[in-house]
Amino acid sequence: MAAPKKSRGPAGGQGRPGRSLALILIAMVALTGGMFLADQPTPRLGIDLAGGTSITLEAKSEPGQESAINKTNMDTAVQIMERRVNGLGVSEAEVQTQGDRNIIVNIPKGTNSAQAREQVGTTAKLYFRPVLTVAQGTPTPTPSASTSGKPDPSTSPTAPKAENGKGSASPDPSATTQGRAVTGGLKADSTPDPKASTTPKGDASPSASTADQAAAAALQKKFEALDCSSAASRAKATQGTKPTEPVVACGSKEEGSAKYILGPAEVSGTEVDNAKAGFDQQRGMWIVNMEFTKQGSKQFQAITKKLSSQPSPQNQFAIALDGEVVSAPQVNTTLSGSAEISGSFTQQSAEDLANVLSYGALPLSFKEQSVTTVTAALGGEQLRAGLIAGAIGLALVVIYLVAYYRGLAFIALLSLLVSGILTYTLMSLLGPAIGFALNLPAVCGAIVAIGITADSFIVYFERIRDEIREGRTLRPAVERAWPRARRTILVSDFVSFLAAAVLFVVTVGKVQGFAFTLGLTTLLDVVVVFFFTKPVMTIMARKKFFASGHPWSGLDPKRLGAKPPLRRSRRATAPTSDPKEA
After folding, report:
1. Cα–Cα distance between 175 and 173 in angstroms, integer?
2. Cβ(256)–Cβ(116) below 8 Å
3. Is the N or the C terminus of the chain less surrounded, counting Cβ atoms within 10 Å?
4. Is residue 83 classed exposed, middle or buried when 0-12, 13-18 and 19+ CB atoms within 10 A define those classes?
């Protein structure tokens, strides 16, 4: 009669524990190597540990809109600023209100604080306006004036340069629009609209009222006097204007020294649903892809249909951000749904424009009140106190393991060391990968994880001891104890991970650092127990020191009160308890 086959243990069990150890060793070497290859040998620190920049912004109310500064608008501004800074990869930035008018933005050291300052302080009131006139950004000479409100052709900013050198020079298109163009879209209609017009509402015409003629004359005069080389003049260009009125505006630095007359806003920036920067491999250039809302798609289709039939520069539309033209691309065809802005973008300018388009406008205007450098002195003291507390806790855990589990403490400490290496390398790599920054709550989460990891070892060791008490030898006890211990460990870690996930979702700021670290170390606990602790325990069960039940092994049958060896004839009867245990 053939002997029954012996059942094999699970993966990493009694038969081939070396495979699991080899896998985790390869993972540790790969993570450590990646950490040094990425030139990130230490975790990225948060502002409380590394210091950084603190920006104080004060809300400003527009004339007649003092009630706009309220809790709702301030909270909305905080959310938008957080998304903007996070869009730059600064996930550890803190944005919070202070009082009823101020917002504090803390940016960790090691990030581009100048770029972050520009992003958070920009109100980002975004409008898409048709370009009516474009010229160089310096004041235009006005030798003669038109009493009818119409600009004199001899002094018009778009008039060609005279042969004798008199008159205004025609602007260089490459200097003013940087060759940018808008293409693409879900729908295209290249049929020009013969009735298309980009004339501002206030432009003079035979049927225009005297007030309209006066407004057009005032706008032309303001345009000719506008000096975009002056910061004060740039700031005042669009003050007090409304989206429904034509305006004068200056181009951004990327647009060169240019000034514009822009028609009434046709599309608001709130109608941009999403915007992303990307690199076009075929054309070798950076582009910005925009997607509009349903309403915005209709509005964008209407304006691009008008502009596509116009000559330059009336076939351009300006993307005006806080009154400054950040881009003035040409329109080649009727577009709707989505569009692509292409041209002389750098990676940085493309990403900045996409970031602003994606996250929308702030409900309030803000003035930069102060910018200070934050030192890490206070955080350093708290970190030292936390590390001392963690060291004391770890020492107490080691003392308990050695006193109670003796030789098994060696396996537990090795497992804790492996868990620490994996945690450290992953935290270092997650800094440049996802912007993770180690702050004080995250350090607390790592310290709490020591207890969670040690608890998993204790569960497994106690299951092995239970099997030995039942009269089994060490090697079968190790394999029989694993299924029960495995279920308990998985359930316990699942509950811990679920709590960390909920905490991460419902909280903001530094508390998320605690939740993220707790969840990460909980997952690593499962990896370490399955791929290191269990295989090492299987190998140690073959060693005489543990297998013979040495008094210092922590698995001495006499000390554990083991029962006599189990026999087949006695399986149906529960053995009596050992009097010595009582």
Report:
1. 5
2. no
3. N
4. middle
Query: DSSP per residue over 330-375, as a string?
Result: EE-SEEESEEEEEEEE-HHHHHHHHHHHHH---SSEEEEEEEEEEP
- Residue 270: pLDDT over 90: no
Show the DSSP H helices in 269-321 as ranges.
294-307
- Specify whether the CB–CB gap between 482 and 10 falls below 8 A: yes
The CA distance from 379 to 401, in Å, is 32
Residue 134 is which amino acid? V
- Give phi and psi for 501, each to the nearest 5: -65, -45
Question: Distance (Å, rounded) from C-alpha 11 to C-alpha 27?
Answer: 17
User: Do 346 and 286 form a contact (C-beta atoms < 8 A)?
Assistant: yes
Q: How far is 17 from 40, CA to CA, in rounded Å?
A: 33
Measure the CA–CA gap between 509 and 397, rounded to whole angstroms.
31
The answer to whether 459 and 490 have CB atoms below 8 angstroms apart is no
Gap between the Cα atoms of 553 and 469, Å rounded: 15
| Run of H or E residues at 100 | none
Quick one: tokens of 87? 């869009």
Cβ neighbourhood burial of 29 (10 Å; 0-12, 13-18, 19+): exposed
Whole-number CA gyration radius for the chain: 35
Bridge partner residues of 188 (DSSP): 335
Question: How does pLDDT run across 396-430, given as a tens digit for each residue?
Answer: 888 988 888 888 989 999 999 999 999 999 999 98
**Inter-residue contact 108 to 344 (CB < 8 Å):** no
pLDDT above 80 for 523:
yes
To which residue do tokens 């989206």 refer?
243
Alpha-carbon distance of 420 to 390, in angstroms, equals: 13
Q: Which long-range contacts (CB under 8 A, 24 or more apart) does 299-303 make?
A: 299/266, 299/267, 299/271, 300/128, 300/266, 300/267, 300/271, 300/335, 300/336, 300/339, 301/187, 301/189, 301/334, 301/335, 301/336, 302/266, 303/128, 303/130, 303/266, 303/267
Reported residue count of the chain is: 582
292 vs 269: CA distance, rounded Å: 9
Give pLDDT tens digits for 178-197.
Answer: 444 455 443 333 333 333 33
CB atoms within 10 A of CB 239: 10
Show Cβ contacts of residue 20 under 8 Å, excluding neighbours closer than 6 positions.
11, 12, 530, 531, 532, 534, 535
Question: Rounded CA gap, 456 and 422, in Å?
Answer: 17
Tell me, what DSSP letter sits at residue 70?
S
In angstroms, the CA 89 to CA 369 distance is: 25
Angle between helices 440-469 and 377-405 (to 10 degrees): 0
